[in-house]
Amino acid sequence: MLLMAAGGLLVVLVCVDMGIKQYIEENFEEEEERETILDKVVLRKVYNKGFCFNTLDKKPELVRKTSGILCAGLAIYDAWLFLKKGKWLRKFGMVFLTAGAISNTYDRLIRGKVIDYIGIQWKNSRFRRLTANLADVYVVIGAAVTGVAKIFRR
Question: How would you classify residue 114: left for phi > 0, otherwise alpha for psi between -120 and 50, otherwise beta?
Answer without folding.
Answer: beta
